[in-house]
Amino acid sequence: MPRTIWSGAISFGLVTVPIHVVGATEDHSIHFHQYHLEDMGRVRYRKVCELEGREVAQDEIGKGYELTKTQVIPITDEDLSNLPLPTAKAIEIDAFVPLASIDPIRIAEGYYLQPAGQVAAKPYKLLVQALGRSSKVAVAKYAWSGRERLGLLRVRDDVLVLHAMRWPDEVRDPAELLPPPVEVTDEEIEGALALMDTMTTDSLEGPEFQDQYTEALAQIIEAKREEKPLPEAPEPEQPAQVLDLMAALNASVQQARASRGERREPAEVHELPRPKRKTTAKKEPAAKKEPAAKRTASKKTTQKKAATAGKQPTTAKKTAPRKPRSA
């Protein structure tokens, strides 16, 4: 069971939902300590008082605000828990908005909100079902770690989730990062859409969505522990300079289809039209074909003439000799 980070309540109009805040994510990364390379002795950071020159324990350390170089205003945890703010002890819901209206760059880490006891069960479920039916998320304010924050409440598997949000002035304007003006053809956009369709998946599960860096690091540690040769690193592929964008899109579609084993329907990518070749010789016009009825009638007329010619005698008529003219 994860430890409780903060306890308070969700304020929803006049409805109060007591909750405990616990972490929603886990860190599976491999962490390192610092060591002295000469003798592998552990190197630690120690907290030393500048005035006394000695190391102090954690229970001797508190917070303070430096007003001047010689004047520090001490601030206790009790002072922070009793701030004159409605958000000091409650998560105050201010509005409900569609999730699509929030820029994802403003959404940060998430926390689970656990109902605190039986008294919180009914108002907790009420808020869960109301958010689910509305298809909206709640925007709230709360005060943690010495500052007031903006948060987003949503539902995940019938559990309330609180996402920390950045204030509008904390997001930098990306206008200065825009590329120079360029033109993109419709064929190139269709090719990119075909590639996106080929790479579309229904779930972010599977080996392609695993932390390969941590796995590779674990192999290095295991090889050194057993004093075996380190696994060879693959040669990094140098990104090719894209000269023909359509050719690159076509090749990417074929590669994506091959990696998926042709499990999806082949995507259609329209190639750029090829330039027409110039020809000097003119093509002869094709002879017009006669209609079928006309060809049949012509054929019958030819056969009739041939039959009639066969009945005529083959010898020529003899003519009488002319009488001689008298003198």
Provide a quick synopsis of the model.
25% of the residues lie in helices and 21% in strands.
What structural keywords apply?
25% helix; alpha+beta; disordered C terminus; 7-stranded mixed β-barrel; extended; two-stranded antiparallel sheet; 327 residues
What would you note in describing this structure?
- Strands 1-2-6-9-8-7-5 form a 7-stranded mixed β-barrel.
- It is extended.
- Mean pLDDT is 78; it is low at 263-267, 278-289, 304-321 and 323-327.
- It is built from 6 helices and 9 strands.
- It has 327 residues and is an alpha+beta fold.
- The longest helix has 20 residues, at 292-311.
- The chain has helices at 77-81, 121-134, 186-198, 212-225, 245-259, 292-311; strands at residues 4-12, 15-23, 63-66, 72-75, 90-97, 107-115, 137-144, 147-156, 159-165.
List the helices and strands and how they pair.
Blueprint: E1 4-12, E2 15-23, E3 63-66, E4 72-75, H1 77-81, E5 90-97, E6 107-115, H2 121-134, E7 137-144, E8 147-156, E9 159-165, H3 186-198, H4 212-225, H5 245-259, H6 292-311
Parallel strand pairs: 1-5
Antiparallel strand pairs: 1-2, 2-6, 3-4, 5-7, 6-9, 7-8, 8-9
Helix pairs in contact: 3-5
Oligomer: single chain
**How many runs of DSSP E, i.e. beta strands?**
9
Q: Categorize the overall geometry.
A: extended
Number of helical segments with 4 or more residues: 6
Radius of gyration: 43 Å
Strand order of the largest sheet: 1-2-6-9-8-7-5
Please summarize the sheet with the most strands: 7 strands, mixed, barrel
> How large is the share of residues in beta strands?
15-25%
Low-confidence region ranges:
263-267, 278-289, 304-321, 323-327
Structural class, by secondary structure, is: alpha+beta
